[in-house]
Amino acid sequence: MIATNELQDVKKEKILEAAHQRFLHYGYSKTTMNEIAGDLAMSKALLYYYFPDKSQLYIAVMQRISCDYLQNLSSKVNTFNNLQEAFEFQINTQHEFILSNYNFFDFFRLNEQNLPDMIWEIVGQVHQSERDLLVTAIKTEVAKGKIKPVANPNEIVELLLDALHGVRGNTLSYKKTMFPNKEHLDEIRKKRLLLSEIFINGLMH
């Protein structure tokens, strides 16, 4: 017999999956708790028992998909043949994550000036994992003698990540928002790859 806690965990996981699919296809603003409950053939009262409001459900879904992203990053730490591979992986993986979850992130565009603290905590964890991946790659290349010693790899990587984040598309609308228009994502990815190549060349000379 399945314990009550296990049944609750199963229901919660089904709610998170259904909510993710709704947010993914229609965005946060065009998704209602009624629709999520309907997708699950669940009463709205039961849905609210697990998640008191839509924003808390959204945060729980973001924690779920961010966990997968973080696991992907951590599994690749110290597995690269060179620094270029590490930076290309970070840039391309982030690009694919944003592209595949683009509609989900409309919450950021709608609430950019007033994001909940929990969202910033998740963003901070992602940023830290990206930084750890690249810092380790730099230290590995220094140990191999392939690049010159770096006094403070953390500061160097932080500077580069700030620069990569600052790369923008050629539209005023994007320059004013955290997330670009979808049609500009590939242009931004290519610019970031070029910037990382210039950065790496600087470390090697």
Gyration radius from CA atoms, angstroms: 20 Å
End-to-end distance: 65 Å
Question: How large a portion of the residues is in β-strands, by DSSP E?
Answer: under 5%
- Tally the beta strands: 0
Largest sheet: none
Please tell me the overall pLDDT: 88
SS class: mainly alpha
The SSE string, one letter per element, is HHHHHHHHHH
Number of helices: 10
Into which percent range does the helicity of residues fall? Answer: over 70%
Q: What sort of overall outline do the alpha carbons produce when their principal axes are compared? A: elongated
Query: Are there runs of 5+ residues with pLDDT below 50, and where?
Result: 171-175
What are the defining features of this structure?
single chain, 205 residues, mainly alpha, elongated
